[in-house]
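Session log. Operator J.P. requested a structure for one protein chain; no other inputs attached. Running the standard single-chain path with token output.
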Amino acid sequence: MNRRSGISPLGITAFLLACSGAWGDSATVAEAPRSPAPRIALIIDDLGYMPGNDNRVVALDGPVACAILPHTPFAARVAERAHAAGKEVLLHLPLQPVTQFEATSAGTIQVDTTKSQLLRILAIDLAAIPYVVGVNNHQGSLLTQHPGHMTWLMDELRSRGDLFFVDSFTSEASVALRIAREQGVPSIRRDVFLDSTPTSQAIDVEFRRLKRRARSHGVAVGIGHPYTVTLDYLEQAIPILRAEGFELIPVITAIMLESRPAIQTASLDGPARQRQSLGR
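Structure written below.
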């Protein structure tokens, strides 16, 4: 298990295969137990700037993933604390938005970024944050529409073998999820932004929508931010999820559950069976 990712050398792809019982006839792996409860995965973005609120995120009950912006003053510290608390650490990768007036973060990958520059930025960002197990995009409403850049990104994530991808879905024209799955990167898409309007009333409306999505689809992914109002709400809402009939799960579990029907068996002793890319 390495310090950067916190994942065994088998990597996430092997993990998904193992959990699906897809090693072929020569080995049998027990499937993860199926729960009747609808499942919710939560990600909190934009960590690394506010140590007080970052610590509140780490202290949230259950497997809430922590998406940390690179080149922020507290990035490494919050990653260490999140990992120690058993939470997934994500690189919150800055990508170019459509709106030019929207402030961009340091190290943002832009439409004029070359492939070699993109790979260098990604490598620097990953090295800056320990225990990263996945990547999701910060902004990116423009860049996630560009198949070329998304292919470069997903090729590199796949080559590393131990990272998943979450499409934050900041644009309905995003091709990020499709290309991630075509390239064989374990991946999923955000269903609900909890706090686009950061008021307790609006967050409650979106959290209820997230729960309806989980009931209707089995799994739902919500993204929030380390706003005080968001944390006030989640500190009250998360502990009662189980009593309401929901299960809070890690992001990788959500990916596994969504991907299970699309994974076909792979043979250990020959190329006759080939694993298809993960599809939604």
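Operator note: Confidence is low (pLDDT under 50) at residues 5-10, 17-30, 262-280.
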